[in-house]
Every structure is written in structure tokens, then in C-alpha cells.
Specification:
The chain has 513 residues and is an all-beta fold. It contains one helix and 50 strands.
Length: 513
């Protein structure tokens, strides 16, 4: 500093009209500290005066004054003792080389609403600058911006008046905690084809997610899969990008409305055994169902059942697992080709009654048939018929229900053991003719036989034979067809004329007694 002139000197010096010389410092450039916006700056203008005296200097800012970031003009003035002044100016620039401090919010975690995938998120970065001035901040997303499900990076920048910038980043995560919505198809009911048990079924679950993204769906059975007769449960799952899942179930029912196919065996024809009327017959209907499952078959007669002679209808039924039935019928015919067995009675021998030639004979052939049925028997003679003396052949026939016949024969012999009855004529008494001694005498024995047949008779004399005077015995015989004979005798007496027979003696007619 220039010392002021003393009064004595001023009194004694000359008139000074020249202002002092002033030299300001060069413009001052300083860097603001990192943690503040002001800085003490020391400076001193140089003042010289032609008086050689000290010159007072003053500045608009004192040396060591605090300068804030920016440029300020400092004006200094030198004043000499003569009261002359001179001024100069210089710039003090405090340069901000420190970017502002920026503090981003902590990472933001929010839960998406159940009914949507976006969410407004408010935030604000903190910007502090050593200049103390307001700092502009900008972010890649505005505060209150809509964030969708997922994680997005938000970048924010603070810009100070010096143009320095600083950035920070934080994450905004909108978390999907809501599983997707899944809607299964309604239960599916289909009818199986007549010729098969499976059916392709198309379906698709409906999956929606609050994220708005596509949602993967998977099912336990693929759409278009083959379903067989019956009911199967299909489970479907929707999975959203957040890994949340939801499931639903529905039923696929393939209904069998087709009855099974049944094929009965062809009509069965068998021959009954010779020694019986029944026969075991094996058979099996063929049952086929579009379900492919085993089908139960039942028949009115079991396979291997005993069938008797004749024709029986067998009805078979196939029943599938759905309860549908179908029936068919076939005939089982057991044919009787064996004639019945017939046994005739042994030959019958009977004795004719003494007083007749006929006899009732009872008999019965024995008829048996492998059918076990009653067998009709007929004979050429009925049982109890009248048989006459002699032998007769009886033929019997057995006829079974199948029309087969068998015959046998036996003899019925009625034997005549009774000799014929013979009745000789009464003794014959004749008178010889007057002109001779012989006489023809006719006679006939009476022969009857229980046989009723004619009986041969013979006599020792023929009827009409010539008898001479006297008595002759005539013997007659009857012979029946059985060879039995019977005899009788009578007397033929021829009496000479004039004599009669009295008490078997000749007496002269007219003689005295």
C-alpha cells in the first residue's frame, strides 16, 4: 500500500495531476472443490504512483473473498495522495469440474395387479451439485411411467449448470404373482364308431395371463389323441412366463352305442348213439364288440349240454361292457337212426279145450328204443285174439317216434289133444229079401271134433255094403286132423224073412211062444 503523503510534504510538493498506475492481477481461474461451490481467492492489484507515495487500493472483492462457481468481475481502484484514481478489472473464474452427485432410488419391486400386466411406478433420483444450484435430472422413464411385468432398467442423469453430467441406474421389477387363468373345454361326449372302439378328439384349453404374454398350455392327452370307449380324465396346465401354473380337468367320454356282433354256430346235426337217446354237444357263439374288450356270452344251453333225440333251439346272447346285448339262435338236432329193439314172446303152445277149437292167447312184444320214448307196437294178431287149433305165425312191429321200425315173429300153436267124438249108428236090423239072403245096408257114423274141422271116418264096412243073413259087427273110426282117433261099433243083423229078432234071438213069425 502507498503510504499517504504527510501534510508537510503535501504542502511543499508540486501539483500532481497524474493518476496512479494500477495493474490488476491476470484473470484468476480456479477449480471449485469437489465438495463445495465456493473458493477463497487471494489477489492484489499493483498500484504505483509517480509521486512515489503509497497508493491506496480497493477492490470490489477483498482479497481472500469467497468466490462461487462461475465468473465474477473484480474491479480494483488505486487512489494516490492527490486524489487521483485509476481502475482495472480482472475476472475470477471458479470452474466447476465436479459432476453433480446423483443417487438413484433403490431397485423397485412391485407386484402386478391380478387383472393386468402393467403398473405405474413413481420415483425420483436425488441430484446434488457442489455448485449448490438446482440440477436438472432426466430419466429414461418418467416418474409414474407404466412398467409391465418383468424387469426394466431405468437410467437417470443429473446435469449441473457447468454441463457436467452424472448417471445412475436402478431396476424396476414388476413381479407376476398371479397364475394364468385356464378354462378347460366342457366335458366331451362322443359316440364310438360302429366298427371300432377309439375316436380322435380335438380340444384346446383357453389360457390367459395378466402379463398379456402368450401362455404355454400342455395337457395329459394331446388334442386329436385317440380315446377308447369309456371315460378318461384330461388334465391341462397353463404356464405363464413367470413360471406360475394353473390346471383344470375335464372328462372325455366315448360311449359305446353299438351292440356286439354275435355269430351263432351253424345248425348242429348229430346222430344219437345206438344205446341211448342223448348226446353231449359242444358249441360256442362268436362274440365281437367294437370296444375290443372281451364279451360275455351266455346260451340257453351250456356247451357240452346233453341233447336228446329231436330238435331243440339254442338261444345265445352276447353282452358287451356297455350293457348292449345281441342274440342269435341255432338248432341242435339229434337224429335217431337206430330202429327200436323188439323182442317177441317165445313161441306160444296151448292146448285146445275139449269142447272147442279156439283159444284166446294173450301176448305182448317188448319194445325199447334208444330215444327212451314210448314205442308203439302192433301185431298181426291182437293180444287176446282167438287162435284155432293149429300153428299161426304172429308178426309184431315196433315203431319209434323217428319212424324207424323193427319186426319179429313168433308162433302160436293150439294143440288138439282131444280125440274126436264118434257116434255109431244104432244097431241095424234088416230083413233079407224074399228072394235072397243079402242086403245092402247104408250107415254113417257121426264124427265131430273140437277143432271144428271135418273129421275123416272109416268103417270096417262101407256104407251100402252087402250084409248077409246073420249079424255082423261094424267098427268105425273117426280121425281128426291132429291124428287123434276114436272108434265105435254097432251090429248089422239081416234076418231071414219070417223071422224077427227077439231078445237077440231069431223067432219065427207066427210061432207060438
Amino acid at each position: 500500500m502507498t503510504k499517504p503523503l504527510s501534510a508537510s510534504k503535501q504542502i511543499h510538493r508540486w501539483q500532481n495531476t497524474t493518476p496512479p498506475t494500477i495493474i490488476c492481477p491476470d484473470d484468476v481461474n480456479r477449480t471449485a472443490p469437489d465438495d463445495g461451490n465456493n473458493l477463497a481467492v487471494d489477489f492484489e492489484p499493483t498500484c504505483t504512483d509517480n509521486s512515489g507515495d503509497d497508493v491506496n487500493s480497493t477492490c470490489s472483492h477483498r482479497s481472500g473473498a469467497i468466490f462461487t462457481i462461475g465468473t465474477e468481475s473484480v474491479s480494483c481502484t488505486c487512489s494516490d495522495p492527490a486524489g487521483h484514481v485509476n481502475t482495472c478489472d480482472f475476472q475470477v473464474t471458479v470452474t466447476d469440474t465436479t459432476p453433480s452427485t446423483i443417487i438413484c432410488p433403490d431397485d423397485v419391486n412391485r407386484t402386478a395387479p391380478d387383472d393386468g400386466n402393467n403398473l405405474a411406478v413413481d420415483f425420483e433420483p436425488t441430484c446434488i451439485d457442489n455448485s449448490g444450484d438446482d440440477v436438472n435430472s432426466t430419466c429414461s422413464h418418467r416418474s409414474g411411467a407404466i412398467f409391465t411385468i418383468g424387469t426394466e432398467s431405468v437410467s437417470c442423469t443429473c446435469s449441473d449448470p457447468a454441463g457436467h453430467v452424472n448417471t445412475c441406474d436402478f431396476q424396476v421389477t414388476v413381479t407376476d404373482t398371479t397364475p394364468p387363468t385356464i378354462i378347460c373345454p366342457d366335458d366331451v361326449n362322443r359316440t364310438a364308431p360302429d366298427d371300432g372302439n377309439n375316436l380322435a378328439v380335438d380340444f384346446e384349453p383357453t389360457c390367459t395371463d395378466n402379463s398379456g404374454d402368450d401362455v404355454n398350455s400342455t395337457c395329459s392327452h394331446r388334442s386329436g389323441a385317440i380315446f377308447t370307449i369309456g371315460t378318461e380324465s384330461v388334465s391341462c396346465t397353463c404356464s405363464d412366463p413367470a413360471g406360475h401354473v394353473n390346471t383344470c380337468d375335464f372328462q372325455v367320454t366315448v360311449t359305446d352305442t353299438t351292440p356286439p356282433t354275435i355269430i351263432c354256430p351253424d345248425d348242429v346235426n348229430r346222430t344219437a348213439p345206438d344205446d341211448g337217446n342223448n348226446l353231449a354237444v359242444d358249441f360256442e357263439p362268436t362274440c365281437i364288440d367294437n370296444s375290443g374288450d372281451d364279451v360275455n356270452s351266455t346260451c340257453s344251453h351250456r356247451s357240452g349240454a346233453i341233447f336228446t333225440i329231436g330238435t331243440e333251439s339254442v338261444s345265445c346272447t352276447c353282452c358287451d361292457p356297455a350293457g348292449h346285448v345281441n342274440t342269435c339262435d341255432f338248432q341242435v338236432t339229434v337224429t335217431d337212426k337206430t330202429p327200436p329193439t323188439i323182442i317177441c314172446p317165445d313161441d306160444v303152445n296151448r292146448t285146445a279145450p275139449d269142447d272147442g277149437n279156439n283159444l284166446a292167447v294173450d301176448f305182448e312184444p317188448t319194445c325199447t328204443d334208444n330215444s327212451g320214448d314210448d314205442v308203439n307196437s302192433t301185431c298181426s294178431h291182437r293180444s287176446g285174439a282167438i287162435f284155432t287149433i293149429g300153428a299161426e305165425s304172429v308178426s309184431c312191429t315196433c315203431s319209434d317216434p323217428a319212424g324207424h321200425v323193427n319186426t319179429c315173429d313168433f308162433q302160436v300153436t293150439v294143440t288138439d289133444t282131444t280125440p274126436p267124438t264118434i257116434i255109431c249108428p244104432d244097431d241095424v236090423n234088416r230083413t233079407a229079401p224074399d228072394d235072397g239072403n243079402n242086403l245092402a245096408v247104408d250107415f254113417e257114423p257121426t264124427c265131430t271134433d273140437n277143432s271144428g274141422d271135418d273129421v275123416n271116418s272109416t268103417c270096417s264096412h262101407r256104407s251100402g255094403a252087402i250084409f248077409t243073413i246073420g249079424t255082423e259087427s261094424v267098427s268105425c273110426t273117426c280121425s281128426d286132423p291132429a291124428g287123434h282117433v276114436s272108434t265105435c261099433d254097432f251090429q248089422v243083423t239081416v234076418t231071414e224073412s219070417g223071422f224077427v229078432i227077439v231078445d237077440n234071438s231069431l223067432s219065427l213069425i207066427g210061432a207060438r211062444s
